[in-house]
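From the shared-data thread, chain only:
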Amino acid sequence: MSDFIFAAQQGRKIPKEDKNFGINNRAKAMAAERGADQVINATLGVLLDDNGKLVVLSSVNEVFQSLKPEEFAEYAPISGTPAFREAVKKDAFGSFIPSRFTEAVATPGGTGAIHSTIANYSDAGDRILLTDWYWGPYSTIAGELGRSVDTFCLFDENRKFYSEDFRRKVEEILAVQERLVIILNTPAHNPTGYSLTDEDWRQVADILNSQPKTKKITLLADVAYLDFAGDGEKYRSFLPILETLDDHILPVISYSLSKSYTMYGMRCGAVICMAPTKEIADEFKSVCEYSARAAWSNCNRSGQMILTKIYEDPQLLARVQEERAGFRDMLLRRGRAFEDAAQKAGLEIVPFDAGFFTSVPCNDPEAAAACLEQEGIFLIPMAKGLRVSVASIPETVCRILPSKILSAIRKAEKKKEK
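Structure, as C-alpha cells:
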C-alpha cells in the first residue's frame, strides 16, 4: 500500500525534510537557545569566516550592486546569454583551450547540470555510477528521473583511487545497459576532500576507452569545488586527459558559481560538453535547452551578468581571483588543522586533499552523530561515516573536533555492545 495520501508515490521515499538542512536547522535552534558559542555546526557546504559570518566576495558584491534593472530583471535566454556561455567556458577551462567542440548551457547551479546530464544521457531504469562516498542529492536526482545509483569503492586498501573496482563496476553495468552516466566529483570531492590525480584520471580514461565502442558513456566531472581546491591551473591539469577519450565517450562538466563566486542563492551554473564532433555538441545544446524548458525554463540572469562583467574586465577578474585566494588559503589551513589533529588523536579520516569537507569512517554514523548532537556538535551522518564541513568552522575548532568525534564514535560503539 502507498504511504502517500493523494500524490503519486512513483516508487519514491520522500522524507519530511531534507536530511542535511534538517540537521542544520536543529543546530541553529540549539544555538538560539543555548548561545552560538555552545554549538559547533559543521553541516552545510557554505564558507563562513572565523566569526561564523557568510563569506561573500566583496569584488563580486560590487558587481552585483552595480547591475541595472534591465540587466537582472529581464528573462535570460533558455540556454543562457551568449556572453555568459562564453565566459563560463573560459572560467571552467582556465588557460586550457580544448581542441574538441564545446557548448555550454546555463543551469540553476551544479545541481541543474547534474539533472540535465542524467535526464539526457541515460535511459529510464538505468543505473548511474558514483563513488561509494557521494553527495546524497545525486541519488535524489536519479530517483526523481526514474534512475537508480550504483557505486564503486573510491579507495583501495592503500587509500589510493581504486581503479580496478571502477573497471569492475563499469563492465558490470555495461553488460546490461547500452549507455552509462558516470559522475566523478573532483577536485576537492564532496564529502571526502579527495582529489583525483592526473594518474587517476589516466586510469579512468584507459578503462573507459577499453569498453565496447557500441556503448555510449557520459563522464560527468562535477567540479563544484574546483576554485577552492588550490592553484587553479594545477587543478585543471586533468582537462587535457578528457580529450584522450574515444568518440563513444562524452565528457561533460557540471560547473557552479555557488562556491567559486560565493553566489549560493543566485543558483547560477552551467553544463558544459567537450564533444568529439560538432554534431554531438549541437545535439547537446539542443537537448539541454529542451530539458531546461521542461524543468526550470530559464536561469537567474543576474548571476550570468555578474560573471560576464567580471570577464569583460581583466583587472576586476584579477581582484576576484586574489580575494578568493585569501579565503581559499584560510580553508586549506582549516582542512590541514583537522587532518593534523585527527592524526594526533588517532582518528581515522579518509584521504583529504582540499575543499569544503572531510569525512570520518565509522560503523554506525547515525549513532555517532546522535552522541555528538547531545554535546552540541552537528555533523552529517552518511552511509559510511560522518561528513565534517571545515568550511563552516574556524581553525581553532578544527583542532579540537577530532578528539570529540573519536570519543563519540567509541561511546556509540559501547552503547551498541550493551
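The chain has a mean pLDDT of 95.
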